[in-house]
Structures are given as C-alpha cells and as structure tokens.
Write a structure and sequence with these properties.
The chain is mostly helical. The chain has 4 helices and 2 strands. Strands 1-2 form a two-stranded antiparallel ribbon. α3 packs across α4. The two termini are 21 Å apart. The relative contact order is 0.11.
Length: 94
C-alpha cells in the first residue's frame, strides 16, 4: 500500500506545511489537493518507486566477489556489462 505522506514527501521534496493524519492530507500549502491530483501523484510515485526498487536490486547483485571475478574472466566481465546495461535501461525510465 502506498501512503499519501510518502507520495507528497517525494513529489514536493518534503517541503514544510504538509501533513497527513490516518493517510489523509490535513495540511498542504495552497489548500488540500484534489483527489484526482492525489491519484495522479500516487501513480507517478509508484512508477518511480518500481524503477528505483529494480535499480537497487540490480546494483545489489554486484557484490565484491562478482566484481573481483569480472577482473578474472571474460564471462565475469560480460555479466557486469550486461547488468550495468540493465541498470542504464532502468535509469532511462526515470
């Protein structure tokens, strides 16, 4: 479940004057945004989070052992290059 507090914190860089209670926006600069805006921002946040989660997963695969093996074998080098290509593909989605 995505919390609106996470969404507005991400979307508006945790600016002052925003707060939520029980998953509902209670304070927001300029007035409480419409449900349509909240839904749009939530969809944007979820898409961004999915990409970031995948980037973090791929980066975590590059353990010190894998990196050391990449210096020793062509297969290791190819794996690192392929993994970094996957990371670049994900980053392009941001």
């Amino acid at each position: 479940m995505t919390y609106i507090a996470d969404v507005i914190g991400w979307k508006f860089n945790d600016q002052p004057g925003m707060s939520t209670v029980n998953r509902v926006i209670t304070e927001f600069p300029g007035g409480i945004p419409s449900q349509e805006d909240q839904d749009k921002w939530t969809a944007e946040y979820e898409a961004w989070k999915a990409v970031m989660d995948e980037i973090l997963r791929l980066e975590a695969l590059e353990t010190p052992r894998r990196i050391a093996e990449a210096h020793l074998t062509d297969e290791g080098k190819a794996w690192i290059v392929a993994n970094r290509d996957l990371i670049a593909t994900e980053r392009a989605k941001l």
